[in-house]
Design goal:
Blueprint (H helix, E strand, L loop, with lengths): L18 H10 L1 H21 L30 H7 L12 H8 L2 H9 L1 E3 L9 E3 H4 L2
Antiparallel strand pairs: 1-2
Amino acid sequence: MPLTPAGVSERPERAPLTFGVWVAGIIRRWPLVLKVMALVLAAAAIGAVLIPPEYRTHASFVANTPSASKMAGGLSGSGGLSGLATQFGIGSTGDPSESPNFYAKLIQSDELRRRLVHSYFPNPRTANSRDSATLIQILK
């Protein structure tokens, strides 16, 4: 390599990187490529064996029962004792979908939140009232 007056050697010009040059470089280094592939496969196999699988799910349901079977014996029916029992909070209906706790958990559920975030709403940033955007796009 010829030296320049400043004492710095010049770099030889390289051919442009093309797909063929790239493939030729990989083929030329095939032992290294095989070693790297073997190490990655071994690490993946060890990880698959040592890391335990984790599954998470959450489900809820509400059983709907006929109104006649909600209160037993003399408390069932449309009058008298069932109204009195309801005033004192004694097992008025037994239907969990009528409790405030049910609605609080429903609002906090992941599925409802996910649907809300991905729903389309009128876009307040545009003049056209027919434009819509997801809640994520609106709140950016």
